[in-house]
Amino acid sequence: xxxxxxxSQVAKMIDLSAVRGQNTLEDVQQxxxxxxxxxxxxxxxxxxxxxxxxxxxxxxxxxxHVGATVGFPDGGQLTDVKVFEARRMVELGAxxxxxVQNYGxxxxxxxxxxxxxxxxxxxxxxxxxxxxxxxxxxxxxxQIILSAKAAMNAGxxxxxxxxxxxxxxxxLRNIQLMKETVGDRLxxxxxGGIRDLKTLLEMHDAGxxxxxxxxxxxxxxxxxxxx
Length: 227
Description:
- There is one protein chain.
- The protein is 48% helix and 17% strand.
- The N and C termini lie close together (8 Å).
- It has helices at residues 7-11, 25-38, 50-60, 79-92, 103-107, 111-125, 141-153, 172-182, 197-205, 215-226, and strands at residues 14-18, 42-45, 65-70, 96-100, 130-133, 158-160, 187-191, 208-213.
- It has an eight-stranded parallel β-barrel, surrounded by eight helices.
- Helix 4 (79-92) packs parallel to helix 6 (111-125), helix 6 (111-125) runs parallel beside helix 7 (141-153) and helix 7 runs parallel beside helix 8 (172-182).
- The relative contact order is 0.14.
- Helix 3 links the parallel strand 2 and strand 3 (65-70).
- It is globular.
- With 227 residues, it is α/β, with parallel strands linked by helices.
């Protein structure tokens, strides 16, 4: 089957991720290697491994961005902790930040708190792109819309559907709702439950511009495109 997008075009939309608690240093290195091979746009690891990714990028002059996770996996940390974590990652050399919103407060209807927290993190990192992870799998349609609006009001640069930890993951409907809400003001990233090329292309058509994907899934997608 012929696809409208090439391997290189898709790679430039993929944030390769090793953000599971059980991911090892070997997993992170494999993620870096695959990103280098295909020209993926970014590599994400959990905070403890992020300095290693930064070091590898500097030593080998890799062109991918280093993404840092903040508030993983549940977003329930104090705002001060998220601010410190985000600022520290930028100081170390991270190029972008993916922060989990406090969806416990979303589920409680406290959107003023959610917006204020995102505002504080964005202020701490300045021009560094901030993606706000909504964790759509746990939210109603209305909560997704209100969360996306809070991210817009707070000055975020992206809204992201999930961490990849939540079940059942991201749906096409989640992406459509996010895009309908933010329009062209923010960009949309999909993560969680993207298992094949068909799903990626459907979400891309719905407005997603970046995709957080693990190594095995990415290898399968690149194989489909290469065929």
